[in-house]
TrEMBL record:
Purpose of the protein: Plays an essential role in type IV pili and type II pseudopili formation by proteolytically removing the leader sequence from substrate proteins and subsequently monomethylating the alpha-amino group of the newly exposed N-terminal phenylalanine.
Domain Prepilin peptidase A24 N-terminal: from-to ranges: 17-100
Name the record gives this protein: Prepilin leader peptidase/N-methyltransferase
Membrane-spanning intervals of the chain: 6-31, 102-122, 128-148, 153-174, 194-218, 230-249
Compartments reported by the entry: Cell inner membrane; Cell membrane
GO BP field: methylation; signal peptide processing
Main location: membrane
EC number per UniProt: 2.1.1.-, 3.4.23.43
Listed GO CC annotations: plasma membrane
GO molecular function, one term: methyltransferase activity
Location of the Prepilin type IV endopeptidase peptidase domain: 111-213
Species assigned in the record: Hominibacterium faecale
Catalyzed reactions: Typically cleaves a -Gly-|-Phe- bond to release an N-terminal, basic peptide of 5-8 residues from type IV prepilin, and then N-methylates the new N-terminal amino group, the methyl donor being S-adenosyl-L-methionine
Length: 259
């Protein structure tokens, strides 16, 4: 029994470390995609001084702690967001394996979660959602539909339209109610989640986004006509739905004895 626990600890430890390393790459995507820099080539560098970083400067989380959150070469502060995203990558990897086991479905869910994480932070920085990332989610949605067959095509097509189409109609009534990236994100992920789980994701996004919007108004950081990035809240809702959408829906239905 002890050997079994050790084996599990080794496996989960490897998954965690791999996820943290992938999280480090997500930081590269978040910085380079909006800047239209090649994220597949070129050495990492300090955004402040431009100095090329050495391998010792790039150990996920550890380098940040060792350098006390400062660049070795210019002394400028390194954003805490870098190790945060690395740790989130590790957490998402662990959650994927714990929820779906060491399967291809876990890999697809993890890949989707990583893309959503990148989308969230790029939207925070730029108020835009890159089309290439939405296209990647759409391709993963098709892979999930064809390979895993967790939902029917009808449910997927309804999920694709049920949130994105009302967003389009809302934009016709109130100009710029939602960004085009938000609409495309809902369409791509609705295809993957199906109509029930997409509804759950949208509800989570509306609740969390509404709370944040209310905070901005109360704190007078935004006016009634000002916009804020909604992509992070959509990403949060979709990630929760990917891991626990079915559980949330069943729990809700059981309250009314409908499950």
């Amino acid at each position: 029994m002890a050997q079994l626990y050790i084996a599990y600890a080794v496996i989960y430890g490897f998954v965690l470390i791999a996820g943290i390393c992938i999280g480090s790459f997500l930081n590269v995507l978040i910085y380079r995609i909006p800047e239209k820099l090649n994220f597949a080539k070129g050495r990492s560098f300090c955004p402040a001084c431009g100095h090329e970083l050495k391998a010792i400067d790039l150990v996920p989380v550890v380098s940040f702690l060792f350098l006390r959150g400062k660049c070795r070469y210019c002394g400028n502060k390194i954003s805490f967001r870098y190790p945060l995203i690395e740790l989130l990558g590790g957490a998402l990897a662990l959650c994927s394996v714990c929820r779906f086991g060491l399967t291809w479905q876990a890999a697809v869910v993890f890949a989707c979660s990583c893309i959503l994480l990148v989308i969230a932070f790029i939207d925070i920085d730029t108020m835009e959602i890159p089309n290439g990332l939405v296209l990647a989610l759409l391709l993963l949605a098709l892979v999930s539909l064809i390979w895993f067959r967790n939902i029917t095509w009808l449910s997927a097509l309804i999920g694709m339209a049920e949130i994105s189409l009302p967003m389009v109609l809302m934009n016709l009534i109130i100009k710029d109610s939602f960004g085009g990236g938000d609409i495309k994100l809902c369409a791509a992920c609705g295809l993957m989640l199906g109509w029930q789980q997409m509804l759950a994701a949208a509800l989570i996004a509306l609740i969390t986004g509404g709370i944040y919007g209310a905070y901005l108004l109360i704190a007078k950081k935004k006016g009634k006509k000002d916009h804020f990035a909604f992509g992070p809240f959509l990403s949060l809702g979709i990630i929760i739905a990917l891991f626990a959408g079915t559980i949330l829906i069943d729990s809700y239905l059981s309250i009314f004895n409908l499950a």
